[in-house]
Every structure is written in C-alpha cells, then in structure tokens.
Write a structure and sequence with these properties.
The protein is an alpha+beta fold. The chain is built from six helices and 20 strands. The strands form five sheets. Strands 2, 3, 5, 6, 7, 8, 9, 10 and 11 form a nine-stranded antiparallel β-sheet that branches. Strands 14-13-15-12-20 form a five-stranded mixed β-sheet. It has a two-stranded antiparallel sheet with strand order 1-4. Helix 3 crosses helix 6. The longest helix has 16 residues. It folds into two domains: about 130 residues, no CATH class; about 200 residues, Peptidoglycan recognition protein-like (Lysozyme-like, 3-Layer(aba) Sandwich).
C-alpha cells in the first residue's frame, strides 16, 4: 500500500499579505506528517494556481517521493498524481536561501490539494522539520502584455516586468525596503546560457503566461527567500520572451538558476514540462534568439564552448563531479542538468539543445 503524509494538520494561513495585483501566498503545515497507512483526505483550500513544498533547513532534502494532486476550481475534478522534485540547496548566490524547497509547479486555478509520500513501496521517512505546502495565487492580470522592440543590435522583442505585472515591492521574508542587499548584482560577462523548464503543465494558454510568471516570481521570493525571480528570461510555448530578474535585460545580471554557475551565465526558463514533450518550435526559436544576443554581447559563439568556474562542490545529473574553485568546459548553450543534479530541463528539451545551438549560430 502506498504510504502518505497527512495534509492540512494546521489551518491554511495567508502570509506576506496581498499585493497591488491581488497575488498572495498561503501555507498548509505538514508538521506531524509522518507516513501513515492511509492516504490523506482531500483538503479544500483558498484559491491557488501554483504550489510547492518547502521546509526549514535548506541543507536538507526531501525523503523518498513526494506527490500531490489538485482540484480544478472550474470543473471540480481532481488531477492525476504528479511528483514534486525537491532539492535543499539555494539557487540565489547573492542571498542565503531561507528555506529548502521543491521546484514550483503551475497547476492552474485550483481550490483543493492532496499530498502523499512514498519510498520504494515502504513507509516514507518523516518530512523535514517545518515542512509545508506553499500555495500561490498569482492575482489578476495587470499591465500591457506586449513585447517591446529590442533597443540594441540583435536584441529580440521582450515583454518587460511591468508588462507581466511584476510586484516590485515584493521582498524576501525579513528583508527591509531600501536595503542595498536587495539590489541587482552584475556579473563581468555572460559566458554561457543555461536552459531550464519550469515544470508543471503544458496545457496552458499563452494568455496565462504572465500569471505563471507572477506565481514563479512570488514563490522564488516568498518561499525560497531569494531577492527576485531566479531566471534572467522566460519563454512561453508561443515564443513570447519575458524579462526575468530585474537589473536590465541588456546587462549581465546575476540570476539564481544554476547553482554554482550563476556567476558567469544567464538562465532562460521555458514555461512547461519537457520531460516527455518537446518544446515548441516557437519556443526554440526564441531561446535561440535570446542566447545569440546575450552571448554575442561578449563575443561568445553559440556553437562553441566556455570554461566556467564553479562556486560550490557538487555533482551534475550525469554524475560528473565539480569542485569549488575549479574550471570546467561547458557548451555555450547548456541545460540546468549539465551543472546541477536535477533532471531539468527535461529529456525532450535536452535533446533539442543541438537545434537551439544551430539556430543561435545562424543568428
């Protein structure tokens, strides 16, 4: 029998308040959630569209497999179970991660959730201290979602942060307005691009893209404790390019996307899950356009390689070991899994990287 951690031990409580756009985060505590013999009950919640699991100690990882399913607020139907990929380390090298967390998953408008943990058919280990479900409501659309023409040579049209409705007052827990540590940081150059997928569903309309990005932004700041959204750019399946972390699209902004290699790179998050489904041709073309432009600013050949120096000791998805302070050879356009032990950007998008490199080289 599958084993499960109880959900909804504590009342859902809103945190961080409402933003001008009406977005919010509320939490369901999972404390006391040791594995049991019974699946948890379906739990009704306040509205949300994105979720993840977080816990107190960022140096701790989730035990076993954590799965959730959600109730569609429009139809009342429950989704199938899906896996939350969890990792303890922070991605933002300019700040210290407040909590460990899973990757956030976009599920669309929902009002119910259920969680279970399993481990090789046996009772799952107790969840880490402070474990909770973080449920994000992205709020209503605001701003004009239109891509602004590129100002520099080779710069593709990009939807600004104002265009997707970024809440520029949002700060990580405990941060004070005006603290210079909240300001953007800059790298010396962009030597490489790391491509990601944001996971969740591919069944979204491109009109929903700004809401997805607002939810990811809030999760990265409120849940992870980062100073801003982690990606430098985001691309949806229609090929629309969105500005990510603030600081200037034409500048080498330090992002929080590929832990250990953020200091010499930019990160592009492709909206959707590309473990089993390839990215659209429109998305590939836009990823190539951003990559060619950013690398071209610093004379980088998209079809070439670069030497990157890691800031942490870790291994990647393929078991390659990286030691802090040492340099390693990367394709100029690589995937998250090339640097970190995660399956991002999914098998299918990973297989499309050669095509992205070719398109970028042609540009």
């Amino acid at each position: 029998m599958a084993n499960a951690a109880a959900v909804g031990v504590a009342q859902a409580a809103e945190s961080q308040g409402k933003t001008p756009a009406g977005s919010s985060t509320h939490h369901l505590s999972l404390q006391g959630g040791e594995a049991t013999e019974d699946l948890p009950n379906e739990h009704s919640t306040k509205p949300f569209s994105l979720l993840g699991v977080s816990w107190d100690n960022p140096d701790t990882e989730l035990p076993g497999t954590v799965e959730v399913r959600t109730r569609d607020a429009r139809t009342g139907s429950w989704s199938s179970w899906f896996h939350l990929e969890g990792h303890g380390h922070g991605g933002d090298e300019g700040t210290t991660a407040a909590r460990g967390s899973s990757d956030p998953v976009w599920v669309g408008p929902s009002n119910g959730v259920q969680l279970r943990t399993t481990h090789e058919g046996k009772a799952a280990a107790k969840l880490p201290a402070g474990a909770r479900l973080d449920l994000v409501d992205p709020g209503a659309d605001s701003g004009s979602v239109s891509a602004e023409p590129g100002a520099g040579e080779g710069q593709p049209p990009i939807v600004s942060r104002a265009g997707w409705g970024a809440d520029e007052t949002l700060l990580p827990p405990g941060a004070e307005p005006g603290d210079p540590s909240n300001d953007p940081e800059y790298n010396a150059e962009v030597k490489a691009i790391f491509v990601h997928h944001t996971a969740g569903t591919n069944d979204y309309s491109c009109d929903e893209s700004p809401a997805i990005i607002r939810a990811i932004h809030r999760y990265h700041v409120v849940t992870n404790g980062w100073k801003d959204v982690g990606y430098n750019f985001m691309v949806d399946k229609c090929g629309t390019i969105f500005e990510g972390r603030k600081g200037g699209t034409d500048k080498p902004v330090l992002g929080a996307h590929t832990y250990g290699f953020n200091r010499e790179s930019s990160g592009i998050g492709v909206l959707g899950n590309h473990a089993a489904l390839p990215a659209s041709q429109e998305a590939l073309a836009s990823v190539a356009a951003v990559s060619a432009w950013k690398l071209g600013q610093y004379g980088g050949d998209p079809a070439g390689t670069a030497e990157l120096t890691t800031t942490v000791t870790q291994e990647n998805y393929f078991g390659k070991q990286y030691t802090v302070g040492n340099s390693y050879t990367f394709e100029r356009i690589s995937s998250h899994r090339d640097g970190v032990n995660v399956d991002c950007a999914g098998d299918k998008l990973y297989e499309q990287l050669p095509a992205i490199r070719q398109l970028a080289s042609e540009l």
